């Protein structure tokens, strides 16, 4: 739409001004074509084994390298992409790019770890999602067990029947599934098993509750116990302190992710971590009491 309006496209949007800010509209216009111009990139944040500190897997996090504004975080442009529907093509690119990158690392002789991709609600609603995933895997030759999807509770509960069927197809393909930001959304525990997820990610806010004294963190501990009783693995996101690291490890959390271990990083520096992983290096050398 906006393209046809050309440079005077602002006028066209004037009546929408109350709903969406001018900044968002500019961003939306520039986001169209960002894929073709090669401005989107994925950064990778390690998840480490709580017991051994070794790199186990990673999460792909989208960034937009804007020619004037520099690197833009997803919190700034994903809402714009969601509202405009652009998230569907962007999300498809993220899946393809992750598979392409996994294949490239394999070809370079690195032994890649599984990579998790965040899905948006609109992608989950698309009937083509499973075909897109199958094609991305086939084209890259990447094994399905190297791919994981992160979905939120609210997303899954929006249309339970459809979610169950889509997740069932993805599981059959061998892709694993995780619930992101667990504990913040609206969900029903009785569906946890039905959704066939392998992983729960404790939301950062509950990890943040764990203070030096270790008296807090009751919700994190409860989520770990709940997940384990259902045979589900647990990842803690947003681990920033040693106290959180110790608390989570003591309570049996399986994987840890956060600035304490590593920030999300560009593909090239993540590849270096993959390379050192072969020598059994730990991301954090401190020992766990
Ligand atoms: P998320 O999936 O819950 O990702 C975790 C966010 O926490 C990331 O922010 C990550 O950089 C940040 N983080 C990791 N460790 C720490 C820590 O120790 N402390 C703090 N303060 N933050 C930490 P980021 O990269 O800005 O992404 C924000 C959100 O954007 C993601 O939340 C996810 O919901 C969404 N997102 C990112 N990439 C994609 C994508 O490819 N597709 C879709 N649909 N959403 C995406
Ligand atoms: Mg995530
Ligand atoms: Mg999360
Ligand atoms: Mg989050």
Walk me through the structure:
The protein is an alpha/beta fold and 289 residues long. Helices cover 45% and strands 19% of the residues. It contains 14 helices and ten strands. It has an eight-stranded mixed β-barrel with strand order 1-2-4-5-6-7-8-9, surrounded by four helices. Helix 13 links the parallel strand 8 (233-236) and strand 9 (255-256). It is globular and about 50 Å long. Residues 1-14 and 285-289 have low confidence and may be disordered. Ligand C2E binds at residues 45, 61-62, 73-75, 78, 91, 94, 118-120, 150, 180-181, 237-240, 257-259, 264. It comes from Parazoarcus communis SWub3 = DSM 12120. Keywords: Membrane, Transmembrane, Transmembrane helix. This is GGDEF domain-containing protein.
SSE class: alpha/beta
Using only C-alpha atoms, the radius of gyration works out to 20 Å
Distance between the termini: 60 Å
Order of helices and strands: HHHEEEHHEHHEHHEHEHHEHEEH
Q: Assign an overall shape.
A: globular
Which ligands occur here?
ligand C2E, magnesium ion
Keywords: Membrane, Transmembrane, Transmembrane helix
Organism: Parazoarcus communis SWub3 = DSM 12120
Domain EAL: 24-278
Protein name: GGDEF domain-containing protein
